[in-house]
Amino acid sequence: MSASAPNASAPNASAPNVQARPFDLIATDLDGTLLRSDGTVSERTRRALAAAEAAGAVHIVVTGRSASWTRPTLDAIGYTGLAVCGQGAQLYDAGAHRELTSVTLDRQLAQLALAKIEAETGPLLKAVSQDGLDGAFLAGPGYRMLGDDPVTHRDPADFWDRPITRMFLQHPTLGDDELAHTAREIAGQLVDVVMAGPGFVEVLPLGLSKATGLALAAARLGVTKDRTIAFGDMPNDLPMFRWAACGVAMANAHPSLLTAADEVTLGNDDEGVAVVLEHLFPQVQGVS
Known about the structure:
Layout: E1 25-28, H1 30-34, H2 43-54, E2 58-62, H3 67-77, E3 82-85, E4 90-93, E5 98-102, H4 107-121, E6 125-130, E7 137-139, E8 152-153, E9 164-170, H5 176-187, E10 191-197, E11 200-205, H6 210-221, E12 228-232, H7 238-243, E13 246-249, H8 255-260, E14 263-264, H9 272-280
Helix pairs in contact: 2-9, 4-5
């Protein structure tokens, strides 16, 4: 599973026909989309992606995870292309294990936004994601992480010691959607706020999104948004859906994404990505 720019320049009888290819770029979220609940990619999905790549399309991962958090998963599934990480903050070359670009959250601005939000909501449970491939996820007292996700517990006073890509908020009683809405209403002129999954209300640099990261990656790959199809399952995928020519929501997606999608496929555990790609890119002989 890799990403490389399509080559349509040299006339070649065996080269794919760009105009006949339905899309040049296939952007997939990871959790709840490309990955099954057990963190793996099915063989059927691998074959569907291979058929799309054989037709000349490019597959790119676009995830809310930071690059440091994404790296072991991409290594495990054999992905060696570009990955948009950290809600668009980082462009990561998985094959070279190298961070190519990075956008950080101004720490003074983050603290100001946090103070304004907490003045309305009361004390929040907090965490931050440090920049860089060695960046840790630092969680303050009480912050809850699902499953075995990597986390380092630290005094919140230590959150600001080095550059961060984003801040995470949880509330003792407010739900994720309500907290995200409230935070956006209060601090939306300073930062962006997205809900990226259960327990993940994230504070980002103003104007940053999966769409901005995907646009940067697409420019590097030489492909355009009008030739892009995107798959996702959470509200943080909405900007990517608006940017791409076609947005496909998983059956397990958040209601806001189901409403905004051009198409709804099966859930991530039912190989929903493969179902769509098999229709768009019928498997060619020799692809396995």
